[in-house]
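thought: fold this chain, then report.
action: predict
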Amino acid sequence: MALYPIFVELKGRPVIVIGGGHVGAEKVRGLLAAEADITLVSPELIEELREHVEAGRIRHIERAYAEPDLDGGYEFVMVATDDGAINAEVAAAGKKRGLWVNAADDPKNCDFILPAVVRKGKITLAASTSGTSPALARRLREELDAYLTEDMPALADLLSEVRLEMRAKGIKVENDTWQYAIDEQLRVLLAQRKLVAARARLIERLGIELAPAGGGA
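observation:
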């Protein structure tokens, strides 16, 4: 597969999931994290999915998939069955309607694949083997999770906060200056939860003037 990696905003966008087993549950977990509007089609559900239905987090069509199910205004289709014939049928029907289709562990019937994902705070890391090795994708996810130390989400929050303040004041610095400012000492301060000192160090190394944490304009 020739893949172009992107992150898609799914909040509030309609997605249909076909399959009520453990693979379907895995798809639903990711979609709920992205705040998608989820409809699931399956005659049966595992307990995890039934709890989501009862809590009102997803809608459930309690029967086997039929092609007209794709006519509900959905933007993405996720097939979570182990039936290659259904995967191919849904992929063909989706293409006919201009829908993006993902079929679990079946790259030839996919318009897009789902990478292994690690999320911590505002940081999301994704890794893919182009659908060739789920085992390696899982190993990559575990290593990425270990790489994202506890100071990373705090660093992302601090950089976002300072960047927004700079933008509001019309302050700009070169990309290389940002790289210079994000040094080991800054990360140590964040890991120690010394947020005020970390902000002060970042501002100093950026060579700009901003109010201290909690200060006025």
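thought: worth noting. The chain has three domains: 14-114, 118-148, 151-206.
final: tokens above.
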